[in-house]
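Q: Structure for this?
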Amino acid sequence: MAGRGKLIAVIGDEDTVTGFLLGGIGELNKNRHPNFLVVEKDTTINEIEDTFRSLGSLPGSVVEANPNQCDPPLWDEIDSRQFLNRDDIGIILINQYIAEMVRHALDAHQQSIPAVLEIPSKEHPYDAAKDSILRRARGMFTAEDLR
Amino acid sequence: MGTPLDGGSRVPIGCPAKLRRVTRKKVAPDLEGWLSLAKARYAMGAKSVGPLQYASHMEPQVCLHASEAQEGLQKFKVVRAGVHAPEEVGTREAGLRRRKGPTKTPEPESSEAPQDPLNWFGILVPHSLRQAQASFRDGLQLAADIASLQNRIDWGRSQLRGLQEKLKQLEPGAA
């Protein structure tokens, strides 16, 4: 993997994921763990969060974050599905309307790799005011600095 | 361009505006890509362009190279897998092509390039699907540029915080 470089992961609606897979980013590895997640009407927030977040970095509420309550093989499987926990992923693309569902997970992510990019979807245009990165950047400066 | 802090250290202040410009630019190619996907779906059938067609085994055609420009500052670049140098294209029989000199021996066959995802959708695909692929590929390079900018912003933030801490310590009433 060191010679091949890092992957680009995508969490989005059907069109977004299909488009980027067409672009050639898709990987379905030998353990059957993909670097993409198609979010449909029946996809739960827990599933999105589970795919995205890193273990132990969030306070409290998600039950499956406790390794002592899982068998080691199952724990490894959960571990590998989570994009933040994979060291072979460099960028995570996520539709902004999906990012809103798991905003607390995005705000908790402070590392530079993987970089998390909020992107528009076909039906939800991009809103810079909601972007976690831009919000953090705006907090650095006063209104005078931004003129 | 920057704000001088602590004896001339400069922190770039143009990054948020730059990020917004690149983000706006990012929207256009994706819109074209979705439009082309819709056209392809119209031509091929509603269920013919979607997750049902995804391959059971996928190898990425593009990957990301991360390089460290300065301490802690990562820069991303998208590279395509299976791209060969011009000298490697063509027959490999020694003596027929001498691009690298007469003593060049035929190299063993390299690993196969990843399969083009267009093949998931059939042998003859409409032009709109190829256009969609091209649009989303453009979007990938843009995504890498934006990710590099985001890293630059985060790096600038951490630098700014460090310098502000130093400034506080240097202020007369700080102690």
